[in-house]
Amino acid sequence: MANSLHDFTAANTNWRHALRANNHRTWIIIGIFLLIYLGIGLLIDMYLYTSSYPQASLAQIFRAIVTFQLFPIATSVTCIIAVISLLVTYSLYDKLMLLGTDYHEITPQTAQSPQEQQLYNVVEEMKIAAGLKYIPRVFIIDADYMNAFASGYSEKSAMVAITRGLIQKLNRDELQAVMAHELSHIRHLDIKLTLTASLLANLTIMVLDVFFYNIIFSRRRDERSGNALATIIILLRYLLPIINICLLLYLSRTREYMADAGCIELMRNNQPLASALLKIQQDHIAHQDNYKAAYLNTPHENVRREAYIFDPTQAGIKGIGSLNDMFSTHPSTEDRLAAIGFILKNKV
Amino acid sequence: MIMTILIILLVVIGYVVLTYNKLIAQIEAVRNNQKQIDIQLDRRFKVFESLINVVKKYMDYEQTTLKDVVALRNQAQQAKASGDEKTRIAAENKISDIAAKINLVFEQYPDLKANQNCLQLQEEIVSTENKLAYAKQSYNDSIETYNATKKSFFASWIVNLFRSKLNMDFAYWQLSEQKVAEQESYTVKL
After folding, report:
1. CA distance A128 to chain B (A)
2. Domain limits, chain B
3. For an interface test with B, which of A16, A113, A115, A125 has the most B Cβ atoms less than 10 Å from its Cβ?
4. Whose CA is closest to A308, among A346, A231, A252?
5. What is the interface pTM, i.e. ipTM, of the complex?
6. Largest CB tally within 10 Å, which of A48, A183, A288, B21?
7. Span A59-78, mean pLDDT?
8. Between A and B, how many residue pairs show a Cβ–Cβ distance under 8 A?
9. Global confidence as pTM
């Protein structure tokens, strides 16, 4: 990995294009998620109706459900469950994000040092540049590692949190770039988006699980059509989690690229973000052992992993997110730098 | 057949209403952002004004303190010369009081060094100027969004239908050409 920005060729970046392209990708993924969700509901409806109408063929049942001759009970129930659980998580989620960390809030009145005052100023400047109506609440996390994240479902309830290590090791411009990246997440409603997607993904798996065990234990092997559906459900039970993880990771990465582009939109300068990202990555590699201990000692670190500006797993710090450690939620720093116009010289 | 026509009609009306509302929101955003520049100009004036006042007061304080000390010193010396020990002690005590007060101030704020003050002042100035610049940028950005929507296909038809309400002509914030030429040739003279 390169050590300084001198190892890169600097170019301008078309942030307008980056924002548009990644936005399109997001819509496609959301569309796929909704289709999967409805598809699972439909599948289960068909499975249920095959036992009520054993003599009907699968195609007939499918047509009957799609044209509402048979009411799609399972689809409706899963949709209602999804809406309720989304509302519950929306109302609880903000408090969840800071779980386990040592933090305090910063306001112009309570800023204890010039550094904290500077942080607040920087956030305020970016709020003006982004034309947000409310200034997000600013929190400092007392930790040595360099990281930051944003949370909140709307501009009104938004917050940004930043570790003390980050404030101390970045200069004003770099700090501003990090905050611009976080404010872009808020502007693009990324927190709401990724959480909704992952909740839907988990729900589909839960619903599938219920019917998977139902099939395993009931062993209705007498009806042929029901049997075909049972095979699909059993197959999906193992395939869907993988598909979901791929989609979620792709979604999270596109949103990172978008936030990077949004940062450049606000600052009109790609150099500060690039040097901040490099610094954060190098710092993580240099203090790998200390930071690993720090991350692991902070409870509930996995809630924040996706939201962080830098995914600690990229510096070889494993064991934070339990399941999908081998995939990063963020694109590699090199790719992110390339996307904002800094391409590694003499790439071997 | 009638159903299809009705649906198409509904879709068209829906599109017109949505586009109309979107354009109105964008126009208001531009106006608000324009006022944001005024707000930041006003803020800059007030912040700098109060900064100057603080500096003045600080210097005044230093000057009056110095004057007081000099006066008390003279008083003490005169009293010493004339053998008026009581006045002398009183004057010396007052000087110690002043010194103690100054020390107290410094003890309360260990950071109260010239360097620190200078850094804070610098930060305040940088931040104020940045806020003003970002307000201008945000204003121009909102004009860009509005103009792009206004001139885009389909939306431009709707703008033509409601010209008085939807067709605004906002000027980008920019320097005059003369000013640009002036700024271009600017170099720091040390």
Report:
1. 6
2. 18-168
3. A125
4. A252
5. 0.78
6. A183
7. 83
8. 39
9. 0.82
